[in-house]
Design goal:
131 residues; 4 helices; alpha+beta; Gyrase A, domain 2
């Protein structure tokens, strides 16, 4: 029996070190509050704060219309920096002068506060581009 324990000693020591060093143990939920899926009541309440956004197919969506294709692409390009800063990337569909933005947090399996935060930023970007 002692030889069997000796054989697994390095595994046990490694496991103990891993638990002591790793600030987020394997059994902990890696999702933050901002990444927790919202309830339908919470979604309905938050939608009131972002006009023109809707829920379609389990995603937060809005379509923006521009004068032309160049303006639509300029809008998409302005979304890169805030999306990267948030570590959250929208799905974008471009059809000539229209851009449809869809948000969902795939890791959480649905819509989260993170989606609403980015939606507000995207709405501001759009407003800043208006003459």
């Amino acid at each position: 029996m002692l030889t069997n324990l000796m054989k697994y000693r390095s595994i046990v020591i490694y496991s103990v070190i891993l638990v002591l060093v790793n600030p987020c143990p394997i059994w902990a939920n890696p999702l933050t509050i901002a990444q927790t899926q919202l309830t339908q009541v919470e979604i309905t309440e938050r939608l009131k704060k972002i006009p023109d956004w809707t829920i379609e197919e389990g995603q937060l969506k809005r379509t923006y219309e521009f004068k032309n294709f160049v303006d639509a692409i300029a809008f998409v390009n302005r979304l890169v920096e805030p999306a990267e800063a948030a570590g959250h990337h929208p799905d974008l569909f471009i059809s000539y002068n229209r851009v449809t933005v869809s948000l969902t947090t795939h890791d959480a399996g649905g819509i989260t506060q993170k989606d609403f935060d980015l939606a507000q930023i995207i709405s501001r970007v759009f407003l800043e581009m208006q003459p």
